[in-house]
Amino acid sequence: MSADVVAAEEIRPAPLWRDRRFRTFWVGDTVSQFGDRISELAIPFIAVTMLAATPGQVGVLTAAIWTPNLLAVLIGAWVDQRPVKRRLMIAADVLRAVTLLSIPVAYAAGVLTLAQLVVAGLLTGIGQVLFGMAYQTFYVSLVPSESYVDANSKLSMSRGVSFIAGPAAAGGLIQALTAPVAVVADALSFLVSAVLVSRIKAQEPPPAPAGPSTWRLAVDGMKVVFVQPILRASLGCTATVNFFTFIANALMILFASRELGLSAGAIGLAFGVGATGSVVGAAITPRISRVLGVGRTAIVGAAVFPLPLAFAALASGSDLQKTALLAGLEFVSGVGVMLMDINLNAVLTRATPEGARGRRAGAYSAINYGIRPVGALVGGFAGAAIGLRPCLVIAGIGGALCALWLLASPVRNLRTVEDAAAA
User: Fold this and answer.
1) 10-residue block means of pLDDT along the chain (423 residues)?
2) Which of 47, 277, 279, 399 is placed for a possible disulfide with 335 were both Cys, Cβ 3.0 to 4.6 Å?
3) Is 403 exposed, middle or buried (0-12, 13-18, 19+ CB in 10 A)?
4) Residues 193, 301: contact at Cβ < 8 Å?
5) Which pTM does this prediction carry?
6) Phi and psi at residue 8, in whole multiples of 5°?
7) Closest Cα to residue 142, out of 205, 190, 193, 76?
8) What are the DSSP calls for 312-374, one per residue?
9) CA–CA dist 307, 78 (Å, integer)
């Protein structure tokens, strides 16, 4: 064996499943994802079935959860200057756990209102943004760049599995214990995540030396995103698909419950069975990426992900037929979102300059996730004005057009993640 081969073997990173720190983080993220699936069904169900919310009010509730992302550009710049990001992740988990626990407490006391759900949505959204910004830097201290696709695939696979078991479990818990009590499971999942993250010892990159103000760093984050062609195109793609899919997301529980007449258990079953597409997508993405290249795979996924929403408007027939159709469409959408997300996330991580990850993530999220509450509000009020089915058609077709951003950019030529650094 030559010296070069020996050297290559010595520097090759260990498989991620053998890395105790990554395994711990993976478990914590998986537990939290399962809890999220319960709240995603339970909280809108509380609004729709217990508080008689209108489509517009459901849109406001969905928007509240994502509105804090508008501050992500400032939060990301502030996070970049903090020496230990892990502590911020723990604080974010605790904030979300306490906030969610307030919902069953208020329900038990007979004082639960739609206003409290909106406030809870805002606070959990703040926790989500804080965790996400700190995660960007913490992640690169755990995973070498050559393992980004592998790591994203594993994390996304867990997310996909959570979409299988989570909604079905949520539907069962809601029918057996009521929706407010089911939210307790999500609160506990955040506490588990906080404990596991606290046990991970990672050598985090030091923050940049004190210099520009948080506002200046936030502006710099915007420049990083808009000047770099790959980041700019990726943002255009994901912001477009987020706007249109959240038109549908704000209405889907309402559509399935009131217009299709499905029970919580049937809705959870449809979403759970359909979510097997996310697991399949996460499993096959690395192989497809090697064949097509990371750029083209992301483009295919960007078109496939939202398009099934348009076909959901055709749901009719018996409860079994409607449940089966929703499940099938969720399956196709799940495959698409993994093809897009896994590759774009890896490309974004590699294309971001060192020392600017937090503010890049903040600037990116402020627009990418900040557009979600806009889409939710448009969906809520458009659903009341023109009906739920036309809104789903608009969401599916409009969302699929997001792939044009990537087709018109250097992303289409990226074969590997390392090509993003060269570009």
Assistant:
1) 40 62 82 78 81 82 82 75 82 92 90 91 87 77 71 75 72 75 86 88 64 69 82 93 91 87 84 82 88 92 94 90 92 93 86 71 80 88 90 95 94 81 63
2) 277
3) buried
4) no
5) 0.68
6) -65, -40
7) 205
8) HTT--SSHHHHHHHHHHHHHHHHHHHHHHHHHHHHHHHHHSPTT-HHHHHHHHHHHHTTHHHH
9) 37
As a whole number of angstroms, the distance between CA 256 and CA 261 comes to 6
Amino acid at 234: S
Q: CA distances (Å), 53 to each of 56, 101, 253, 277, 390, in order?
A: 8, 21, 12, 31, 20
Helix/strand/coil (H, E, C) string of 288-321?
Answer: HHHHHCHHHHHHHHHHHCCCHHHHHCCCCCCHHH
Q: How far is CA 223 from CA 15, 125, 364, in A?
A: 36, 25, 10
318 φ/ψ angles, rounded to the nearest 5 degrees = -75, 170
Of 363, 407, 379, 385, which is closest to residue 72 (Cα–Cα)? Answer: 363
Q: How many CB atoms lie within 10 A of CB 123?
A: 18
